[in-house]
Design goal:
Order of helices and strands of chain B: EHEHEHEHHEHEHEHEEEHEEHEHEHHH
Order of helices and strands of chain A: HHEHHHEHEEEHEHEHHH
Largest interface: A-B, 45 and 45 residues
Number of strands of chain B: 14
Number of strands of chain A: 7
Shape of chain A: globular
Oligomer: heterodimer
Structural class of chain A: alpha/beta
Shape of chain B: globular
Strand content of chain A: 5-15%
Radius of gyration of chain B: 20 Å
């Protein structure tokens, strides 16, 4: 890729809409979890939306494959899964994307190029490499994108996948969403040297760091890696620097975060940042209308999903074997 | 065209792989040392030369091998991978249990993971504790997986092809002590069998002896030893540990009223215990206490003299057959069952 083109207003508004959809979705999930309509572990991605919106803007949904983590609602929505089907999944409804079999942390939506969250840290990386391996035989031109957190960079499976992909020139992109916390522990205390992307050179692939709160920057970095991978030149590692502005799980008091850190993160979170830029050129009323439209879409999707019947227990034994 | 060839067990596996690669262009074959070296046991010899890039060597990275297979299978490939020793599975169990076994179920069939994982296991002289375990119960415990244990040259061919043709993740557990035990006639290029079903290897009237894997040969020998004492054992080769063909076992036990299950794996938490439970639950009337013959709950030692004290053989199985046939009340038989761990 050459010099980044100035973003058109339309593109910026697309990013804003995509990120707002994720943010409002997560806020509604937080509410549903608090009232007990959603049960179990839920990992929200508030603050990391630019990574999902930016990366998916660089992928071809008709053939590329995304393998996110358990913090995957943002990825799922950015891949185009309707909020209604996602709410229904989290609510354990028959109409959920997986009929309630996946839940918040292990859902999959292959028809949207979303090939499954993974609740095992780093486990999606070898599978993404496998999807890329298939592409080297089927002529599809598919690129696989494995997304995982900074903590996953210390998992053996991720290293195995990176080496395997590099040695076979597989069209896979390893995207680290570095939100600075491996679950509840600062990544800085778990690695010697904080340049996670620099590990790429050890595997013989390009690696780079990008501002993960800037969707256009993420898109450009991913687009460059996609172009390279599709051209048969192998994998790349991208480290997107971001912050989650909520707990690791709903109910996480985040007492492990130093004073002032969250406030700083809130001041730099991607939606506030993009809105500040857009307000310089776009009438506020237009931005407010966009926001209200997405908010209404989310509210409607949530209400419809809540009205759906629970997953049908009579189907629980189905689809185990061919 | 169906024909019969004289093949070793290893050659029968090789012939099955060659047929799969030949007839199903979506198959891939990969693993450690399987391509250019032809496999540490020579099982995959010549396949790279014949099938080119679809057969390739991998890093020593079991998670990448199995995870790579899962991902490729989700996109229409049909990977056949090798985990050189069953013990090596344990570093990549996540990709088997948390990943492969879940793909179809969670997606309600929208995505599937038709992978075949070949491995070999079991005790052989001098093998250390990390190269001699029998782990079929670990895999058989997991819904979504199929587990095959070919005991004969013919099954080395047939079960592997059934696994590759099957749309589920299948683990095929071979046994290296069988690989090079001489050539026997093997029917090749016949129909593909379903991925299930036990076989009666020796019909008999007095005791049902269920076994699988390399232990089949010790079981058949034990049956001959017992025959010398006037005991007619029916030897069933389970062949598939999951799904386990309980119908065949129950039908046999209905006839004989007696059951011995012999396997090389530990009895504690093992598949033999599962069979005994299923027989008990079925309500079939037993004439003596059902018995398990297997390794006691101890680690596997390397020295042959020590390993021999752990691994069942024809004599220990024959002893169980004799006790089963002589067994009166359930309590009395259990009293004499030295092979059943007291825990």
């Amino acid at each position: 890729m050459g010099t980044p083109m100035p973003e058109t207003a339309a593109t910026q508004l697309d990013f804003l809409e995509s990120m707002l959809r994720i943010r409002f979705f997560e806020e509604e999930v937080g509410r549903l979890r608090a009232e007990g309509s959603i049960v179990g572990s839920v990992h929200l991605c508030n603050g990391q939306e630019a990574v999902h919106a930016g990366a998916c803007a660089a992928l071809d949904p008709s053939r590329d494959a995304v393998f996110p983590t358990y913090r995957g609602h943002g990825w799922t929505l950015a891949c185009g899964v309707p909020p209604y089907a996602l709410f229904a999944e989290l609510l354990g409804r028959q109409t959920g994307v997986n009929g309630g079999r996946g839940g918040s942390a292990y859902l999959t939506a292959p028809e949207y190029g979303m090939y499954g969250e993974n609740s095992i840290v780093g486990a999606g990386a070898p599978i993404a490499a496998g999807a890329a391996l298939a592409a080297t035989f089927d002529g599809s031109g598919r690129v696989a994108l494995a997304a995982f957190g900074d903590g996953a960079m210390n998992q053996g499976a991720v290293h195995e996948a990176m080496n395997f992909a590099a040695v076979r020139d597989l069209p896979v992109i390893f995207l680290v969403e570095n939100n600075h916390y491996s679950e509840l522990t600062p990544i800085a205390s778990m690695v010697r040297g904080d340049r996670l992307f620099a590990r790429a050179s050890a595997y013989g692939m390009p690696g780079g760091r990008v501002d993960g709160n800037d969707p256009a920057a993420v898109r450009d970095a991913v687009a460059q890696a996609v172009e390279r991978a599709r051209g048969g030149h192998g994998p790349a590692l991208i480290e997107a620097m971001t912050q989650r502005i909520v707990g690791h799980y709903i109910g996480d008091a985040q007492h492990y975060r130093p004073p002032g850190e969250l406030e700083a993160a809130l001041a730099d979170e991607p939606i506030a940042r993009l809105l500040a830029t857009l307000r310089e050129t776009i009438p506020h009323a237009e931005l407010d209308a966009l926001s209200e439209r997405v908010r209404a879409e989310i509210a409607d999707a949530s209400a419809r999903a809540q009205a759906d019947p629970p997953a049908d227990p009579s189907t629980v034994l189905e689809h185990l074997y061919a | 065209m169906p024909e019969t060839r004289d093949l070793s067990y290893a050659e029968a596996v090789n012939a099955a792989l060659a047929r799969a690669l030949d007839e199903r262009p979506e198959t891939l074959l990969f693993g450690e040392d399987v391509a250019l070296p032809g496999g540490v046991f020579g099982v995959t010899k010549g396949l790279r030369r014949r099938f080119g890039e679809r057969v390739f060597d991998t890093p020593i990275s079991e998670s990448a091998i199995i995870g790579g297979a899962v991902g490729a299978a989700m996109f229409g490939r049909r990977p056949i991978v090798e985990i050189m020793w069953a013990d090596f599975f344990l570093v990549a169990l996540d990709q088997v249990v948390n990943q492969a076994a879940n793909v179809r179920y969670v997606s309600r069939g929208a995505v599937t993971a038709p992978i075949t994982i070949r491995t070999q296991q079991g005790s052989a002289p001098g093998a250390c504790a990390q190269h001699s375990q029998s782990l079929e119960a670990v895999f058989a415990h997991v819904p979504g997986l199929r587990v095959a244990m070919p005991a004969t040259h013919q099954d080395a061919y047939d079960l592997l092809l059934a696994a590759v043709w099957c749309d589920d993740p299948v683990i095929v557990i071979e046994n290296r002590t069988l690989y090079h035990t001489g050539r026997r006639p093997v029917g090749v290029n016949g129909g593909i069998q379903p991925a299930e079903g036990a076989l009666i290897r020796r019909p008999g009237a007095d005791v049902t002896l269920l076994t699988w894997g390399a232990m089949l040969h010790a079981a058949l020998e034990a049956a001959e030893l017992a025959a010398g004492r006037g005991i007619d054992a029916e030897v069933i080769d389970a062949r598939w540990i999951r799904p386990l063909d309980l119908d065949t076992v129950l039908a046999s036990v209905e006839r004989t009223g007696r059951l011995v299950v012999a396997h090389e794996a530990h009895t504690t938490g093992g598949v033999g215990g599962e069979v005994l439970a299923a027989v008990a639950e079925s309500g079939v009337r037993l004439r003596s206490a059902p018995l398990r013959v297997g390794a006691p709950p101890v680690r596997m030692p390397a020295a042959p003299a020590l390993a021999r004290a752990v691994v069942p053989n024809a004599l220990t199985i024959a002893d169980a057959l004799i006790r089963s046939a002589a067994g009166g009340s359930v309590g009395a038989a259990a009293e004499g069952a030295a092979d059943v761990p007291r825990r």
